[in-house]
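Q: Make up one entry.
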Amino acid sequence: MTFGGLSGMRLSWFEGAEYQIDLSAKNARAFRKKFAPFIEHARRAGRGQARRAARTPAGRQRSGEVRAWAKDHGIAASERGRIPASVIEQYQAAKGH
């Protein structure tokens, strides 16, 4: 990255905190040279945990419909949380999906 002639570096360390430092090209080279012995023995970290997609209003409505259907048919489904796949499969089969 460059920021108006400066070389930008983004680093993650100290318990996952992220830091950004803007260095001139000369200082960036010096910084890399000082860290090189440590980096040689380091391993790249993954991208972190993937974020879950936000629930949509349609998804919430569908969940409510599945729960109501399950309750009407004497099938156990909690009021909150994930609906078991078996309950969803039964709902879809009954509705012809």
Summary: Residues 12 and 44 are 11 Å apart (CA to CA). The chain has a mean pLDDT of 77. Residues 57-72 form the longest helix (16 residues). The first strand starts at residue 2 and ends at 3.
